[in-house]
Amino acid sequence: MRNNLPHVRSLALLLRPIKGTFAYMKKLQFGPSRTIFAISGLMIFLNMPRDLKGEPTPAALSAFNSYTKGVESRLTQQHRSPNAFLAPVSPNPETEDTLLRKGGPIIEKLTPSTSADLSGALLHHWRGTAFAPGARAADFEQLMRDFNSYPQHFSPQVLRAQVSTQDGDRIQASMRVRQKHVLTVVMDTNYDITFGLLDAQHGYSISRSTRIAEIDSPGTSAEHTLNAKEEHGFLWRLNTYWSYEERDGGLYLQIEAISLTRSIPNGTAWAIRPYVESVPRGSLEFTLRSTCNALRR
Q1: Which of 110, 115, 186, 295 could form a disulfide with 123 if both were Cys (CB 3.0 to 4.6 A apart)?
Q2: Domains of the chain, first to last
Q3: What is the model's pLDDT at position 160?
Q4: Are 276 and 261 in contact (CB under 8 A)?
């Protein structure tokens, strides 16, 4: 590349059948005995005292806001020039373009080591880049603005989505999302989203979460929103930044996701961290692949 909807009594946390859980741990290269301890670690994570869960601390929120402000400043600079609109993911632009056009998305972990633990919270920063052959910038913008179609294009992660208010290029939207890895988590989320264009071939969007609520017993008569003391802190904040560039007979897509979650209990990091890190990475890759598939239709 040239210089350059969307997440035991609490939260609908349903452990998969043990067979599925073991298979997931095996994928992470855990042996049988380590798998048992990993499952135990997850149960410790879920059953921590309530005073260790709930809302993030003011210090964690301040660190998150400061970090995202720096990222947004860098993106603002990128979006001012068509020659530097997307962040490079390879020292060699020609090699990078070839990899993207021939293969799947390129996923990068950008989380700084200095943000490993932010006063009881963890910051996660990932970037994904992909190429959608034959797609146009206008196609992508139309897809992103059509929230009613999100459950169709981003199933099973997005269960429902709708626009609450719209004022030109600024949209308030809500989504019910589901994350299913070792655990199944359902959340109702609200976002403040802004769309922007540099020209007909270059555009971007900025999405900041304004509310994230964990849902217990979703889809049943017992469904309800967990309060701050009941929730598990699987996702406290989520900012998503899209940048896209039309050229080479298609559309280059780049998405950066920055999230804030609970920190990992001492002594269980080796067991839980692979799962915790797999969630944002897997979600990012799923979003990119689903977007490319939607643009091919």
Answers
A1: 115
A2: 18-296 (3.30.530.20)
A3: 96
A4: yes
